[in-house]
Amino acid sequence: MTVLLLKLAGPLQAWGSSSRFARRGTEIAPTKSGVIGMLAAAKGIRRTEPLTDLLGLEFGVRLDQPGQILRDFQTARSLDGRHSAPLTYRFYLSDAIFLAAVQGDAALIHDLAGALKRPCYPLYLGRRSCPPAGPVSLGVEDIGLDDALKTWPWQATDRYRRGAPRIVQLEVIRDARPGDQDTETHPDEPVSFDPAHRQHTWRSVLRRHVPVTNDLAESSGVIDHDPLSLLGG
Amino acid sequence: MNRAIIDVYALQTVPPSNVNRDDTGSPKTAVYGGVRRARVSSQAWKRAMRLAFKDLLDRSQLGERTKRVGESLAERIKALDPTLTQEQASSLATEVFVAGGLVKADKKKPEAANVESGYLLFLSHRQLDNLAAAALEAARNGSPLDKNKFKALVKSDHSVDIAMFGRMVADMTDINVDAACQVAHAISVHGVDNEFDYFTAVDDRKQDVAESGAGMIGTIEFNSSTLFRYATVDVNALHETLGSAAATQAAVKAFLTAFARSMPTGKQNTFAHRTLPDAIIVRMRDTQPINLVGAFETPIRETEESGRIKLAAAALAEHTAAVENAYGEQPVASWVTRVGDQTSALADLGKAVTLDELVNEVGERISLTLGQPA
Q: Which fold has domain A2-77+86-213?
């Protein structure tokens, strides 16, 4: 299978899966519907158009730098300033970096990679005010999704990596496959982005960790530090 | 398709201020590169830009975002036909929005004066004028306005601000307009710690009788920052919504001027933080928008030899070259408006111009691009 790899990084991102009304949340990692929506935007598929091929893509994401939750408070007023709309809370992930992988038919994947380089509509990380920092596409690999998320270099910033041990365990969240144990479900399988009747179904996901080598780990012996050894434990 | 994307980058220093605050009164912040930064939300700056549009564009090219749709439309109806009473105009206006399905008829008070929509409704002045004319015509012919006619009227004659910033109507999604611009939250290029200004206010009368002690005390939280600002305009999308190359050109020119000259008004009277950008870079691209905020992922640390602006300009110039070389993303054209020697690192990024020249040259380039055959 062929895999398209994406780096989702920027000061702010927001990946909601069940936001309603005045409280707009974010998940801790990019959602499948968010990323499929971004690919659809790149290809110029309008919200009201069928997603066809994109619905069959397999999706996984690695939490390279989890970031922090940010709560933003927003007011809105009419142009003359006389009238106020309800106060809203918007949640963002700040300072996060993710490696996302999308697997599918080779022709489609190459087509999507091309579309990301010349997107029809501007891309954003879950919310319009969150443009990605730098280009999103890392290119196409002819390996499986699991291997891609296991072997691709750690995308966290140098500063973050320097403070981490030699081997780090990164969380991976991917579409569950038949036979996978301990899966969980989220309302995050996109069916249609038509704003008149937006549709999502349930998506089974598998969470696990993959070990990744950190070539910037400081050789300060941090990983060897074991306070319990003093107790003979 | 002649793809045309306008990326706008700015470095702007603001003195001690509280431009955009959260519900506790603190200036907004965000963590980036592991360090807390000052932040001005995109919503705050977009509103400042929309207000600046009023001085840059004719009223007919702008819109009104209000819940008081009934009052707004009734005024226009009355202007078209001054023989109507206020009540008649209001009830005609109400009928329009009820027919459109955006407002429910109030059975208890059928002649309720001025209806309001349940949310801020963004309509262009031309759309409101068209609705007023249609309401009068319907009244004369005795054939009430229907939903399809309403939709047709609010889907044509979009104003520049609606095309640029978008319109979202939850009850009637097919009249939504996708925004042609994307504005990022402005963040500081360096780490900040918010500070508190402790103040006392003296009671004038007490002072006259030589009584000591303050009339009131309080604190205001603030910070000062050098902001990196980024926005991108999808010229093709704008063209599609506005329908004409001339309107598109005018819209982009107004956008660039407003981006450069506007400032959110939060605590303006307290801090007078009314600055202009130290540098503005506009890069016209034919592939994809590129946000260069990564230049400041490592926060700038001023030294004894060099202030923030100089280091920020150098970091931005270096990062721009690095990203564009790595991805083979050279802009089609580029302009730089900058102030003083501190920003000289940015000189190589594009043609040196004043803001007026920048706005005009980008505008000319756009009409050239849109005029080319696909």
A: Alpha-Beta Plaits (3.30.70)
pLDDT at A224: 59
CB atoms A78 and B50 under 8 Å: no
Residue B64 β-bridge partners = B123
| Cβ B329 vs Cβ B287: under 8 Å | yes
User: What's the pTM value of the predicted model, to 2 decimals?
Assistant: 0.85
Q: Count CB neighbours of B173 within 10 A.
A: 15
In the block, tokens 């016209």 appear at B284
Residues B53-111: tens digit of each pLDDT: 999 998 888 998 888 888 899 999 998 888 988 888 888 888 888 888 888 766 555 55
What's residue B222's pLDDT?
A: 92
| Cβ within 8 Å, pair B291-A78 | no
DSSP B40-90: E-HHHHHHHHHHHHHHHS-GGG-EEEES-HHHHHHHHHHHH-TTS-HHHHH
- Chosen from A13, A95, A137 to mutate, greatest number of chain B CBs within 10 A: A95
Provide, as residue numbers in chain B, all residues whose Cβ is less than 8 Å from the Cβ of A194. 173
Q: Cα separation of A90 and A195, whole Å?
A: 20
> In chain A, positions 14-53, which contact chain B (CB-CB < 8 Å)?
none
Q: What is the pLDDT of residue B101?
A: 81
Chain B residues in contact with A157 (beta carbon < 8 A): 33-34, 297-298
Domain boundaries, chain B: 5-49+180-189+224-369, 65-158
Answer whether A119 sits within 8 Å of B184, measured CB to CB: no
Domain spans of chain A, in order of start: 2-77+86-213
A93 interaction partners in chain B (CB closer than 8 Å): none
The verdict on a CB contact (< 8 Å) between B30 and A12 is yes
Torsion sign (Cα): A123, A125, A130, A134: negative
What is the per-residue pLDDT for B110? 52
Q: What are phi and psi of B371, to 5 degrees?
A: -80, -20
Across the interface, whether the CB atoms of B22 and A73 are under 8 A apart is answered yes
Is-contact A116 A123, C-beta < 8 A? Answer: yes
